Amino acid sequence: MIRFVALGAVSLLAFVAPALANDPTGVWQTEGGRAQVRVAPCGGAICGTIIGLKEPNDPATGQPKTDKNNADQSKRARPMIGVQIVMGMKPNGGNKWSGQVYNAEDGKTYAGHLTLEDQKRIKLEGCALGGMMCKASYWTR
Length: 141
Description:
- The protein is mostly beta strands.
- The chain is about 15% helix and about 45% strand.
- The N and C termini lie far apart (about 40 Å).
């Protein structure tokens, strides 16, 4: 009986382990440690939202940092904590997802790719000019 239970547990792990290996959900620290981003399911995709900042307040005002560079003027007063910066990423083979990336530094949204390099590191790319120019950032768990 114990052998059957152990065999069943091993068989179950064989199915679960590959699914976990391809899972970028969780909390990630951006390159340079400036922000923490929660990557989680959103609809039929995955998205990433800022949940913490190394420096949450604007040194000039002492107030919480806002999305002051957003191309949409109506969003410039919203707090940075809570801003979605990885949007609508859908599987695009193996350990890669494709969707959009918001860059708060210039206030623009780009075509983007998220690649799970291993369980402790992802590469996030934002691309312009139809993918001809991409900039990568590496995040850690």
